[in-house]
Amino acid sequence: MLTKWLRENKAAAVLLTFLRLYVGWEWLTAGWHKITGAKPFDATGFLTNAIAKPIADTATHEAVYPTFVAFLKAFALPNVKLFNLLIPWGELLVGIGLILGVLTTTAMFFGLLMNFMYMFAGTVSTNPWLTLLGIILITAGANAGRFGVAYYVKPYVHHLVNVFKHHDHGHGRGGDKHHPAHA
């Protein structure tokens, strides 16, 4: 019942718009500060610390997310220059997508992905709060972007998809007939 309300109700779309703008602003400013900061963004220290001091079980002192730590060690840290680019620009683009209300679900998916990565690395900060709000936005689906650019873009995209689906690709007007490539 709540999911249906979030996904279809116009009043919910109004509330989701405010929520979307807030979460988008948080992402936008986080990315913007990393891009325009006095020193270039560098994730090396963060990644090194997440590898050296992973989240551990209090009883066994074993890493709770050993696969994530292995990913950081084997891929993220050796490719830190790529992550130095992906993190700030990813945060900025998530924020822009949410604020404009275009590709809202996609933007929120990548925002949630980053939130979980930060939490797996041991950073709490605002990540649990943004994760909770992000789950609400992603559950709402297209209704979260109802009062945004998506409202104007969606009919155009549907039109393009229909044109592409019904394009006969030069094989004449044969309905559903398929012609082999060698014919």
TrEMBL record:
Primary location group: membrane
TM region positions: 12-32, 63-80, 92-117, 129-153
UniProt KW keywords: Membrane, Transmembrane, Transmembrane helix
Compartments, as annotated in UniProt: Membrane
Gene Ontology cellular component terms for the protein in this record: membrane
Superkingdom assignment: Bacteria
Membrane topology annotation: Multi-pass membrane protein
Protein name: DoxX family protein
Lineage: Bacteria, Bacillati, Bacillota, Bacilli, Bacillales
